[in-house]
Specification:
Order of helices and strands: HHHHHHEEHHHHHHHH
Pfam family, one: EmrE
Keywords: Membrane, Transmembrane, Transmembrane helix
Shape: globular
Structural class: mainly alpha
Protein name: Multidrug resistance efflux transporter family protein
Strand content: under 5%
Number of strands: 2
Oligomer: single chain
InterPro entries: EmrE (IPR032713)
Largest sheet: 2 strands, antiparallel
Helix content: over 70%
Length: about 325
């Protein structure tokens, strides 16, 4: 249950991304700077944290062993995750992006066959190819049903172009984030903690963010002071606190794809937190009764997903492993 609670806390801080990105877009800021400044601002904070924990040398040792792996999966996990989210904020409101982002619950479950998980049997640990957990997937569909209920009447008011440009990039991000995170967990093999891994992925993704910044300088000019400040807040709340909390939770269930999917399902709470943030700080209209029903369904689905995914593997699974 502890990884689930940590996952919910991370969702609270992740939600600040959608609220602050919506605020920056409303004030005329470019998505390019919203994306790149977050990760550039993260570097000094993470360096200080890892230095105080005396973890820089082991991190650099790991990065030197697999530089290509770090560059590739950091670009996928951070670059193809956050740049599309910020791009989508230019075409859709924050609540719709937060709602669409919940597709990552299913995306994470569908990625299971790409990885090998460790199953404890009477004969000791056995590695088998991950399988899609159908019970957890059904609970994920309940969560997505709640998302649809919350967003359906708002989506009808949007032009098709805005809907596509606001949805398709988020779909890309929903696969990129869990894929990059899991691939780096697999590459590190438990030798690095969450702080080291976040710093390593941030450093490895810097070439992409610097190139994006150069593009932004020549196309939209420098960011305003207000956008820089809000990007700094995103870096602290979402980039540092939320990411470390989430990576800590996923590390706690590393090797168990069902429980990993349950931790990722806690991110559905971002919709509720983002809605509360927009109500408080951006003065959006109060949701309808249908939207509130959707929130209830999301919460129920998350609880059911957690209960189903945290059950101990059935004896049938152990038998199938022994037969193999």
């Amino acid at each position: 249950m502890k990884p689930i609670l940590i996952g919910i806390c991370s969702a609270l801080f992740f939600a600040s991304t959608f609220v602050l990105n919506a605020s920056m877009e409303l004030s005329g800021g470019s998505w390019i700077w919203s994306a790149s400044l977050r990760y550039i601002f993260m570097v000094p904070f993470l360096l200080c944290i890892v230095m105080m924990r005396k973890g820089l040398r082991p991190l650099f040792h790991e990065m030197k062993k697999q530089p290509g792996t770090w560059l590739l999966w950091s670009f996928v996990g951070f670059g193809l995750f956050y740049a599309p989210l910020c791009f989508a904020s230019a075409y859709s409101p924050g609540w719709l992006i937060a709602g669409t982002w919940q597709i990552t619950i299913i995306s994470g479950a569908l990625l299971a066959p790409l990885f090998v998980e460790t199953i404890q049997t009477k004969k000791g640990p056995v590695q088998i190819r991950g399988r899609i957990a159908l019970r957890g997937l059904m609970m994920s569909l309940i969560i997505l049903l709640g998302i649809v209920l919350m967003q359906v009447e708002h989506a009808k008011r949007l032009p098709l172009e805005s809907l596509l440009l606001g949805v398709l990039p988020v779909l890309v991000a929903s696969f990129a984030y869990p894929l990059g995170n899991r691939k780096m967990m697999e590459a590190c093999g438990g030798r690095l903690d969450a702080y080291q891994r976040v710093l390593g992925m941030t450093l490895a993704s810097l070439p992409f963010w610097l190139l994006l910044s150069i593009y932004g300088f020549f196309t939209v000019g420098l960011p305003s002071g207000g956008q820089s400040l809000q990007s700094l807040l995103v870096a602290l709340c979402s980039g540092i606190i939320a990411t470390v909390l989430f990576f800590t939770a996923t590390d706690m269930v590393r090797g168990n794809m069902q429980r990993l999917a349950a931790v990722e399902a806690t991110q559905s709470m971002e919709v509720l937190f983002a809605l509360m943030g927009e109500l408080l700080f951006l003065s959006i209209p109060m949701p309808s009764l249908l939207s509130w029903c959707g929130m209830l369904v999301v919460t129920l689905g998350m609880i059911l997903h957690s209960l189903v995914s945290n059950r101990k593997p059935a004896k049938k699974l152990e038998q199938s492993v022994n037969i193999g």
